[in-house]
Amino acid sequence: MEKKTAILMLQDGTTYKGTAIGAIGTTTGEICFNTSMTGYQEIYTDPSYFGQIIVNTVSHIGNYGTVTDENESNKPQINGLVVKSFSSVFSRSTAEGSLQDYLDSANLVGIADIDTRALVRHIRQKGAMNAIITSETDDLKVIKKQLQATPNMEGLELSSVVTTKEPYTVGDPRAAVKVAVLDLGIKKSILDNFTSRGMLCKVFPSNTTFEQMKQWKPDGYFLSNGPGDPSVMDYAVTTAKEILEADKPLFGICLGHQIISRATGLETYKMHHGHRGANHPVKNLDSGRSEVTSQNHGFAVSMESIEKNDSVELTHTNLNDETVEGIKVLGKKAFSVQYHPEASPGPNDSRYLFTRFLEMIQENN
């Protein structure tokens, strides 16, 4: 079967020609790269990537196929895919199908056989920007016009798009500890880390108020990861403020961390090109130890605003660029981290945070 040509064009006009993978079509979104060596399926199904085109920096993608259990949500969430070498065959005996079939069934457009190393260097230098992938036309003027119509990630509220439409529970109904989860774009493996520690979770849509969640009588509250700009999510910030005012145990990851931070008066900003990978070193300022972490975020909490705020304490910092990786709210039972302690993909150095949250709840009961 003859391979079809695809074109990738960046917002600054940089253009690459490669081979179409996945579905034949056209897609746009913010382009960003992930440096993880494995776990491509977990990356593609993470709702935090909603609206983005992902560049996998590892050379070979698709070689171990796909397995339903490795989905972090009920479908791929990315807008498009860019890889160097794409494998339409797989060698893992437990795989249920090829990545090509997986992408095709999800109508996901991608491009292969391009110099991803050069592309990543370009993004690192120029910063995150919008891009378009198409296997439908090679008319660069038409492609550029379609790209110009794509909205920028900064200022976009996306949690309401990816959140659950109805509340649902996960875990043992007889569990002694109940956690109300505000779904801003949650990953399945986060819920797994709660339920494996004996907690019952009730997952609520992103616009659920504190009063509505409180009626379930939870022992603690969790604000999840998710896509988009935290600075336009006043509804979630209000919920976080009310949980803090009620002095209930509160834990946040990634976007949830940013929402809790904004609820305490801290500021967030759009990063130059973000952190996305499974080997980011973070220093735990309490223990003095380094943790290797999995990360996926394009926004961050301002270090300067922490230095001016006496209601929060910095608990974790990034050893690569000294950005904020974790805080605790002084005088409250609340803490949050920017990285992903559940990993998937990634190391398990930070899974103790789920146990810490459970212990906080138990001490409060």
UniProtKB/TrEMBL annotation:
Residues annotated for L-glutamine binding in this entry: 48, 226, 228, 255, 258, 296, 298-299
Known pathway: Pyrimidine metabolism; UMP biosynthesis via de novo pathway; (S)-dihydroorotate from bicarbonate: step 1/3; Amino-acid biosynthesis; L-arginine biosynthesis; carbamoyl phosphate from bicarbonate: step 1/1
Active site residues according to the UniProt entry: 254, 340, 342
UniProt entry tagged with the keyword Nucleotide-binding: yes
SMART domains per record: CPSase_sm_chain
Keywords, sorted A to Z: Amino-acid biosynthesis, Arginine biosynthesis, ATP-binding, Glutamine amidotransferase, Ligase, Nucleotide-binding, Pyrimidine biosynthesis
Annotated region (CPSase), positions in chain: 1-173
Enzyme Commission identifier(s): 6.3.5.5
GO biological process: 'de novo' pyrimidine nucleobase biosynthetic process; 'de novo' UMP biosynthetic process; glutamine metabolic process; L-arginine biosynthetic process
Organism superkingdom: Bacteria
Keyword Ligase annotated: yes
Domain Carbamoyl-phosphate synthase small subunit N-terminal residues, every copy: 4-134
Pfam families to which the protein is assigned, alphabetical: CPSase_sm_chain (PF00988), GATase (PF00117)
Catalytic activity: L-glutamine + H2O = L-glutamate + NH4(+); hydrogencarbonate + L-glutamine + 2 ATP + H2O = carbamoyl phosphate + L-glutamate + 2 ADP + phosphate + 2 H(+)
Family from the record: Belongs to the CarA family.
Role noted for this protein: Small subunit of the glutamine-dependent carbamoyl phosphate synthetase (CPSase). CPSase catalyzes the formation of carbamoyl phosphate from the ammonia moiety of glutamine, carbonate, and phosphate donated by ATP, constituting the first step of 2 biosynthetic pathways, one leading to arginine and/or urea and the other to pyrimidine nucleotides. The small subunit (glutamine amidotransferase) binds and cleaves glutamine to supply the large subunit with the substrate ammonia.
Protein name: Carbamoyl phosphate synthase small chain
The organism of origin for this protein: Flammeovirga pacifica
